[in-house]
Amino acid sequence: MTIAPDRTPTRRRVLPAGDNGSLWEARPSCGTFEFRGVRLRLMVDDPAEVLFPTDCGLSLLSALNGDGCPALEGVNALDLGAGSGIYSVALLAAGAGRVTALDINPASAAQTSMNVMANGLDVTRLTCVTSSLERYTPVERFDLVITNPPHLPYDPSYARRDGLETALVARRGGLAVYDSVLERVDTLLAPGGALLMAHSSLADIPRTVTELTARGYETETLEIFEMDIPLLAYAEHKETMLTLLKEQRAAGRAEFDGTRFTVHALMFRRPGNVTRR
Ligand SMILES: C[S@@+](CC[C@H](N)C(=O)[O-])C[C@H]1O[C@@H](n2cnc3c(N)ncnc32)[C@H](O)[C@@H]1O
Question: What spacing in Å lies between the alpha carbon of 132 and ligand 1's midpoint?
Answer without folding.
Answer: 9
